[in-house]
Design a protein that fits this description.
The complex is a heterodimer.
Chain A lengths: L3 E14 L2 E14 L3 E5 L6 H8 L7 E6 L2 E2 L5 H11 E4 L11 H6 L9 H14 L15 H13 L5 E5 L7 H18 L2 E5 L3 H4 L4 E6 L2 E5 L3
Parallel strand pairs in A: 3-8, 3-9, 6-7, 7-8
Antiparallel strand pairs in A: 1-2, 1-4, 4-5, 9-10
Helix pairs in contact in A: 4-5, 5-6
Chain B lengths: L3 H9 L2 H30 L8 E6 L7 E2 L2 H5 L5 E7 L15 E4 L1 H7 L3 E2 L2 H9 L3 E5 H7 L6 E4 L12 E11 L9 E4 H7 L6 E2 L1 E6 L5 H11 L7 E5 H43 L2 H10 L3 H37 L10 H28 L2 H5 L4
Parallel strand pairs in B: 4-9, 6-8
Antiparallel strand pairs in B: 1-11, 1-12, 2-10, 3-11, 5-8, 6-9, 7-8
Classes of the chains: A alpha/beta, B alpha+beta.
The complex binds adenosine-5'-diphosphate (ADP) and magnesium ion.
Chain lengths: 229, 384
């Protein structure tokens, strides 16, 4: 049996809007095994993105612990957390979030700027990542010259390029039509199965969740498991 | 510079806006370069010539004349080494617009005193011996394409000659300045010929020029000269050439001040508008900066990228503007006699470059701090 890659213990998260407190997550516990593909579902506003941000090290819990690969990331300073993200997590968002003036290859290269790699090596790795997502022939295209599905592939290539063990996907198919969405999900499945990436994906779409190994349902800040279909 | 693609990406995002910003900065620094150089010229006009020369002028009006015979009495004064004189000739060369000072001077004494004018010895000799000879400054000779040996005619206005016809002179020499602060925009006429041929006022000159051995004595000698001719029909007013020039320079300085004030206002207005545009350009990119932070760029690197971007833009515009100013200044100098020899001062250039860098930092700092403190979760979500 594989080890737990992610251990979340008694996590609470409360946002502050002025004097108002918005409790989002309460005493949440979650274990995710290495190599898992987890789909996180639940109504809008239930705190899925909030949980994902905690796992990805974009935000810190109000209380409780987040341990990933043996590292208490809730205790890292901002700078060290940034460095941790660059080595361990790839992010895929609903709206792709590519830099519009850079070519696909340059977008994919961005995370490598934080490494000591030479320009030639960065280019080589970016092209490799683009070929994994089937877009090696679009390396010189800018985001505006790509379809939505292709943009999302570039975003996935960017998430992969520094070879992180964990992929965090927040509604990666939320903006795509059925067919394109399925292609993206198949790609994620390949990354999980053949490349050993642990994936945590938030989605609204039950069909999308079918591609995952597990589903969890988040409602009013607490988790309930669902038996895979 | 591996972040270059990111900096470029920021600038290229809205190329037209970046270009216009660049153009504004360019113009601001072009103005800065011109302004600084011109105001230096206004200031430097004061110390063009030494304190070892005294000007003896008519007391009441510069259009009056004084008798040349005063020379004999003044020569008796202790400390006066040499005496020249000059008279405003006026006249028209082809067109009234061809304006430059022309002075009948005693060739020998004049060349002895004005050592800042450099001529070959044979041309000096020719000026002294050829009665119809004139010498012209290099910039005049270049402007009108005169060569040594040319006959140069002038229509008389103040000074009619005995034939009531044009004055025709022989150009026997072209002088250069001993350095670039000496302007070469005047013409000098052999006085003996002028005096002999003029129709009236023979023996009267505009001002006497005294070369004195000790500048510290200038005040005493000036008093002595004026006392000598007090209560005569032609009283004198004696001052150093420097003071004489200062009076002139003060009037130029006033013009300079007004110009400086106007140009400075324009310069700062451009900077304010540009700064605002650049700051706005960065604010619009906050979501992109949030992505960089998500990927793992630290707060510090985001701060540096944003500042580098605005410094790049303002430095590029600033250097282009200063280079343009450097190229324009000699042309400006050549077309305005007072500015002859004007050139870009290295200190001005360096000051401009520093100002451009400072502008980039100041403009970039506010949005850069915002980008640095940016909360990723807020910026990515719709909770901003
Ligand atoms: N940065 C924030 N500041 C304040 N409230 C927030 C913030 N992010 C999320 N929330 C609130 O927390 C709740 C959960 O948000 P979120 O995790 O984005 O839900 P989901 O992704 O499941 O739709 C919502 O009520 C939302 O308004
Ligand atoms: Mg969400």
């Amino acid at each position: 049996m594989a080890d737990n890659l992610i251990q979340i213990r008694d996590v609470c998260k409360t946002y502050h809007r002025g004097k108002m407190e918005i409790p989002v997550l309460q005493a949440l516990n979650l274990d995710i095994q290495e190599g898992d593909f987890l789909a996180l579902m639940g109504p809008s506003g239930s705190g899925k993105t909030t949980l994902l941000n905690l796992i990805g090290g974009l935000d810190k819990p109000t209380s409780g612990s987040v341990e990933i690969g043996g590292q208490r990331i809730d205790q890292l300073s901002e700078t060290r957390l940034a460095r941790w993200r660059s080595r361990n997590v790839g992010f895929v968002f609903q709206l792709y979030n590519l830099l519009p003036v850079l070519t696909a290859q340059r977008n994919v290269e961005l995370p490598l700027l934080l490494t000591g790699l030479s320009g030639a090596e960065r280019k080589k790795r970016a092209l490799t990542a683009l070929s994994v997502v089937g877009l090696e022939d679009r390396a010189t295209h800018k985001p505006a010259e790509l379809s939505g599905g292709q943009e999302q592939r570039v975003a996935i290539a960017r998430a992969l390029v520094s070879d992180p063990c964990l992929l965090i996907c927040d509604e990666p198919t939320g903006d795509l039509d059925r067919k394109t969405a399925d292609e993206i999900l198949d790609l994620l499945q390949v990354l999980n199965r053949d490349h050993g990436k642990t994936i945590v994906m938030v989605t609204h779409d039950p069909k999308a969740a079918d591609h995952a190994n597990h589903r969890l349902h988040l409602d009013k800040g607490s988790l309930t498991a669902e038996i895979p279909a | 510079m591996k972040y270059f693609s990111l900096i470029w990406a920021g600038l290229y995002r809205k190329p037209i806006r970046s270009f216009l910003t660049l153009a504004s900065i360019f113009i601001a620094f072009l103005l800065f370069g011109l302004l600084q150089s011109v105001s230096r010229a206004f200031e430097s006009g004061v110390d063009l010539s030494g304190a070892d020369r005294l000007i003896v002028a008519p007391k009441y009006s510069i259009v009056d004349l004084i008798p040349l015979s005063y020379r004999n009495q003044i020569r008796q004064i202790e400390g006066v080494e040499n005496i020249a004189h000059r008279t405003w000739f006026g006249g028209t060369y082809k067109d009234p617009a061809n304006f430059f000072p022309r002075w009948p001077v005693p060739a020998k004494e004049f060349l002895e005193i004005y050592t800042e004018y450099i001529l070959p010895p044979e041309q000096k000799q020719a000026f002294i011996t050829i009665r119809t000879g004139i010498i012209a400054g290099r910039s005049i000779a270049d402007k009108y394409e005169w060569k040594v040996g040319d006959k140069i005619p002038f229509i008389a206005d103040i000074w009619e000659n005995k034939d009531k016809g044009p004055w025709v002179f022989d150009l026997v020499g072209i002088y250069d300045g001993k350095d670039e602060t000496v302007s070469t925009d005047q013409m000098f006429i052999n006085y003996d010929y002028f005096d002999e041929y003029r129709a009236f006022e023979v023996g009267a000159v505009g001002t006497l020029i005294l070369k004195i051995s000790d500048p510290d004595q200038s005040a005493a000698i000036a008093t002595q000269v004026d006392a000598m001719f007090a209560n005569s029909s032609d009283e004198t007013k004696t001052s150093t050439e420097q003071a004489y020039n200062q009076m002139f320079a003060k009037q130029m300085g006033d013009i300079g001040f007004i110009m400086t004030a106007i140009l400075s206002a324009v310069f700062f207005t451009i900077l304010l508008l540009t700064g605002n545009t650049m700051a706005q350009a960065i604010r619009e990119r906050i979501p992109e900066l949030a992505i960089l932070k998500t990927i793992g760029f630290t707060n510090r690197s985001v701060l540096l990228i944003v500042i580098a971007e605005s410094v790049c833009l303002s430095l590029l515009g600033g250097i282009l503007g200063l280079v343009m100013a450097t190229m324009m200044i000699p042309g400006l100098g050549a077309s305005i006699p007072f500015f002859i020899g004007l050139e870009m001062n290295p200190v001005t250039f360096a000051t401009g470059v520093c100002a451009a860098i400072a502008l980039g930092i100041v403009v970039g700092l506010m949005p850069a701090f915002r980008a640095m403190r940016l909360n990723i979760v807020d910026a990515l979500g719709k909770h901003v």
